[in-house]
Design brief:
This protein is mainly α. The chain has 20 helices and two strands.
């Protein structure tokens, strides 16, 4: 039976509603990316007080960060592959839902075991950005795709810059559970918005899910990242760390062999070993290392006591505000990155971004005592990070088939995660080795911070070299040749006239 005219929407109204929903796709996906980064950051201001609040040891509390890192590293390529097979919007919604459930668990409990399990659930959100980028590739026309992907990539930095001061303000003026109730509400809003505004992508990669490959990758990554993240606490020469590194090598070697033999592998290693894809992953690892040192060192440097002779003794809230300009820069520079990639190709943008990161660390080495120079150096690093992180998914999108974009971008994000974990361990080792007693407590010396900056800057230059080694962008070269032919034809026509 036909609906009454007062109830049924005229075709024009339905078309208008559809256009409005399509127009919200980019903002909704960007909101999900920012929310993911906020979720990962908000726990940082709590870490010094959590042993008192939960009755747990400092070592146990540190697992609230480690659990998110491990689960995110494992689930990102797995959920990326699931998105290619079963639907990207469906898997994206599930990842945001798991993140929200984890936030609700944190809001309801003070038990450290529950909190660690909840943070592990939140690690699923690490797949939000690669899944969203794949949706953008499938849904947007080519002329809009570059800027949208660049903006989506920048949401990681924007969310991280917003999360720290937001969490610090909540922790300072309200009960710490309030912060997780707030993020739970934002997570529920994100799930609803994605389900309502984002269309399911029709691009699929059929086949059976590689369960054995997922388990093998999970085991190998857990061994590797656990060794990297806990080496400073357990001792780099301890039997546990040595066993974990050995286990990672053995398991990942067996996994590699299994993936090459699998009919439908979790990760297409033949695709990964192509220079355009493999070198992009190497550049992602090195860029992740170089970028993460900026956040780690800046936060510790400005909070160091004034008795050190270089520290500023800032509060956590003030520290977060010092990092906020970097998030604003990422928001503003993402369109610039897209324009450079369109004109010169994403590998040039990536190389330029890595070089700018190195310049930022040169500024940090030149002066790390004055607040305005610290903020300037951190802002320059953030600018380079925006260029590099915006170019990486564009490189992947141009190098892999449409049916493998989510899984390929998931691997790229995984490499960034490994780079960040390695950066955290390396920076901690440098600062611990170059410490002195201030007021009876060990505090990193300024020389240690400068060495950390030099190390991160050197890695950024290595990322620049890796980017320049990537084979030329055929897509952008073809575009330039086409433009050249068009100009030549126009000139001939003018001469004939």
């Amino acid at each position: 039976m036909d609906q009454p005219a007062s109830i049924a929407d005229p075709p024009g109204v339905r078309a208008g509603r559809t256009r409005r929903r399509d127009g919200l796709t980019i903002p909704v996906l960007a909101f999900g990316g920012i929310l993911m980064a906020v979720m990962q950051t908000v726990v940082v201001p709590l870490l010094p007080d959590l042993p008192r609040l939960t009755g747990a040891s400092a070592g146990a509390v540190s697992w609230m960060v480690t659990a998110t890192l491990l689960s995110g590293a494992v689930l990102t390529p797995v959920l990326g592959r699931a998105g290619d097979m079963y639907g990207k919007r469906r898997v994206l919604t599930a990842a945001l839902a798991l993140m929200t459930v984890g936030s609700v668990m944190c809001a309801l409990s003070s038990d450290i075991g529950v909190l660690i399990a909840a943070r592990a659930l939140q690690g699923a959100a690490a797949s939000v950005v690669p899944l969203s980028i794949s949706i953008l590739r499938d849904e947007l026309p080519p002329e809009r795709r570059g800027s949208a992907v660049a903006f989506m990539s920048s949401t990681v930095g924007i969310g991280a810059a917003l999360g720290l001061p937001l969490a610090a303000l909540v922790v300072q003026y309200a009960d710490w559970h309030t912060m997780f109730w707030l993020t739970s509400a934002l997570g529920a809003l994100g799930v609803t918005a994605v389900w309502w505004a984002v269309k399911e992508s029709p691009v699929r990669e059929p086949g059976r899910f590689d369960v054995l490959g997922a388990l093998g990758l999970a085991a190998g990554l857990v061994c590797l990242l656990l060794a990297v993240s806990q080496g400073g606490q357990w001792g780099w020469g301890s039997p546990r760390i040595g066993g974990l590194f050995l286990g990672a090598v053995v398991v990942l070697a067996l996994w590699w062999r299994q993936q090459l033999r699998a009919e439908r592998p979790l990760v297409d290693l033949r695709l990964v070993t192509r220079p355009r894809v493999g070198l992009s992953h190497v550049a992602a690892l090195l860029t992740g290392f170089a970028f993460y040192a900026n956040t780690l060192v800046t936060a510790q440097l400005v909070q160091a006591p004034k008795a050190t002779g270089y520290g500023l003794g800032l509060s956590i809230v003030a520290t977060g505000l010092c990092l906020l300009p970097g998030g604003v820069i990422m928001l503003l520079f993402s369109p610039v990155s897209a324009r450079i990639s369109a004109a010169r190709g994403p590998r040039i943008t990536l190389a330029l971004g890595a070089a700018v990161i190195a310049c930022g660390y040169a500024v940090r080495i030149a002066d790390s005592r004055d607040l305005w120079m610290i903020i300037l150096g951190a802002a320059v690093v953030a600018t380079g990070t925006t260029l590099a992180y915006s170019a990486l998914p564009t490189l992947i999108l141009r190098a892999v088939p449409a049916g493998q974009t989510a899984s390929a971008n998931g691997v790229n994000v995984l490499m960034r995660t490994i780079g960040q974990a390695t950066s955290s361990a390396a920076v901690a080792a440098v600062l611990v080795h170059h410490s002195s007693l201030v007021g009876g407590a060990p505090v990193p010396a300024l020389h240690g911070y400068l060495l950390a900056f030099a190390m991160a800057g050197t890695v950024a230059l290595a990322a620049c070299a890796a980017a320049l080694s990537i084979p030329g962008d055929a897509a952008s070269g073809g575009t330039r040749r086409a433009r050249g032919r068009t100009r030549g034809a126009r000139d001939e026509a003018l001469e004939g006239a």
